[in-house]
Every structure is written in C-alpha cells, then in structure tokens.
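It would be a great kindness if you could assist me with a short task in structural biology. Thank you for your consideration; the sequence and its tokens are set out here.
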Amino acid sequence: MKNKIIYGSIAVLFLIVIFFISLFEITIREQNNLTNEIFSNAKNTKDFDDFVAYQAAYYDYLEKHDANGYSVTVYNAVEDNQSNHFLVIIIPDNYENIEFADNNSDVNDNTQVTFIINQEIVFDTKKNYPNVAISYGYSNENFGYIFFDYEILNTTKVNVEYRDYHGSEINNFEIDFVVTKDDFSTFSKGYTREEIQDRLDLTNKLKKEISVRIMIYLIIVIALPFLYKLIKTIILNKKEKNNN
C-alpha cells in the first residue's frame, strides 16, 4: 500500500510538471509561429501595416519612397506610454539585383541609415550598430528587410539617408514628423492583447495538445505497474526453472 501511495504521488507530481511544461512550450511555439507569419507576410506583400500593428499601440503610415531598387516606408509608431517613434523600413525590390552581407560580421558592408534633425545626426547605424553588417537583414536567414526606429519628442522635420552595401547613396529625403499625444483618432490601432490571443487561438490548441500528452502519460502510468509485475514474473519463472 505504501508503495502505491508513493507511486501515485510521484505520478501526480510528474503530471503537474508535464502540464506546465506543455503550457509554456506550446505558448512560446505559437507566439513564435505568429511572429514569423506576420514578418514573412510583410516581406512577401511589402505591406508593413500588420507588422507595425503587431508591435505598436497606434501607428500612422506616413510616406513611401521608391528609388534605385529599394522601397523606404515611414511610420509613426506609438507605444503604450504614448512615445512617438520615427520608424523606417527598407526592403529591396528584387534581391537578385542587389548585393548584401551573407553574415552578420561582413566587414565590407557599408550599408548605412541615418536620421538627421536640424542638421544634427540623431541616429546612425554605423554608430548604433558598430561592427554589424546590417544588410544581412536582407538574407533568407533573416526577415528580408531592415527596420530602425528613433523616439522623437517634438514635431520636426527629419532627413533620412540610406546607403547600400557599397556605400552608394540610394535615397535621401526629408519628411515632416508630427508628435501626437492623447488624441489618436486619425491613427490606426495596433493589435490589443485580446486580438493577439484570438489570432493565436491558444485555448483550443492548448486543450487539444495538452489533452493528448496527458492521455499518453496516463496510459504509461497505468501500464508501468503491470509491465513491472510481468517482467518480475518472467524473471522469477526463469530463476525457478534454472534452479530446477
């Protein structure tokens, strides 16, 4: 009886462990799948609204500039604390027509993005990401596009400069950036936690997968004592035959 109680207690303990490990593993997996789906769709469609909505509380599409084989899309992405971020997303028109780094430490990569306000460089990938080949972001191992954001506190004009792998100037333009607080009626809403949960459909997936795992575990737990008795009986029988 004592052995049965100990066995039952251990079985229940492992059942709880399996439940929480499964809960964590499935949740992380589905979140990663959703993130990969959104990032991949942005690359395939070159429409970044969904990509920005997944990360911002509110967002406003500002402009898109096409030049020399690249598209540069600009947003105002607002976080939960109402901080306004100047967001720039750059994607090639055709990957076969450009050269980009094939690893993260390519020393020959001269790709550079700078934001300039009032003739002052406020953001520079060469300084913010030293020794990083940012064009590696165009590779199949990454998103297929690169993006950078910078928090701006006051309404201003921002000059954007983009240089490619060889350091050649690809795009250079100026844009008015309006910092917005409190009233976001003209902005698009980012995904709420509830909307993300709906897209993840975690409740149904968790029920299905955890139920299967628990069922398999219970079958094993129930079968183990019988297997133990069976093996023990076979060994004892063999011993008796050998003794005889």
Summary: The chain has a mean pLDDT of 90. The first strand starts at residue 58 and ends at 67. The chain has two domains: 2-35+199-243, 55-190. Helices lie at 2-45, 49-53, 125-128, 193-200, 202-243.
